User: Fold this.
Amino acid sequence: MAHPREFAEGLSIGIIMDGNGRWAKNRGLPRTAGHKKGAEVFSDIADYCDELGVSSVYFYAFSTENWKRSEDEISTIMRLFEAYLHEAIDTMERDQIRLKILGDTTALSPAIQGLIDKTDAIAARLPGCFQANVCLNYGGRDEIVRAVNRFAAEHPGETITEAAMAEYLDTAGIPDPDLIIRTGGEYRISNFLMWESAYSELYFTDVLWPDFSEKDIDEAVAEYRHRDRRFGGVKA
Ligand code: IPE
Ligand code: IPE
Ligand code: MG
Assistant:
């Protein structure tokens, strides 16, 4: 759909991509089939956000709690990431997309860590471009704990401030999400961007992630446009 430039330009959007398993179950398919379709939708939606002029987008792809799933499901998800990272290495420069992986990457396979090093190096050459953040082995609480521990190690005896905290988080330098969209019909945050979502507008939809489309982003942004953000103040 064609939009005026100001429709979504400059927005920061977080997306909790939920419902892959139920989408597959509804079709009598294994959960892994939902993740495969979900990965395709993720690529399309990332491109659409870029097209809309969104400044940055955060995709919640794998949480610190998702290790509770079966080995088969986890290894399928990790294989999909590996394939995505290979593709990103080939296309980031051409498409001018800064890919950043957020989360505790030390627990990921050496192969995936090596690919992330490569995407980081490419991203460093693309300042100011549309930024796609993928939260992988990410937990909001874990991110806060890692940030505080790193601050304490580098500044022994000092107390942390909100500004220092923001610099030590995985999201340092990336705008907080203005809008967080959760697909799949659950009304919860599930440990996504706990610090950064303090004043995000929340939007929940029953659409399962593999069915999510450009039209659904349009609907979420259109609703966001009607929200009255006060940040604790009083409307003039
Ligand atoms: C989201 O879909 C993807 C991940 C959490 C990795 P789910 O796999 O959680 O799908 P449902 O919620 O079981 O349908
Ligand atoms: C949230 O979905 C995590 C991701 C989308 C990666 P979950 O399916 O893990 O969340 P819960 O378990 O329903 O809270
Ligand atoms: Mg789920």
About this structure: The chain has seven helices and six strands. The pocket of IPE (ligand 2) is lined by residues 16-18, 60-63, 66, 186, 188, 190 (CB under 6 Å). The beta strands are 12-16, 56-63, 97-102, 130-138, 179-182, 201-204.
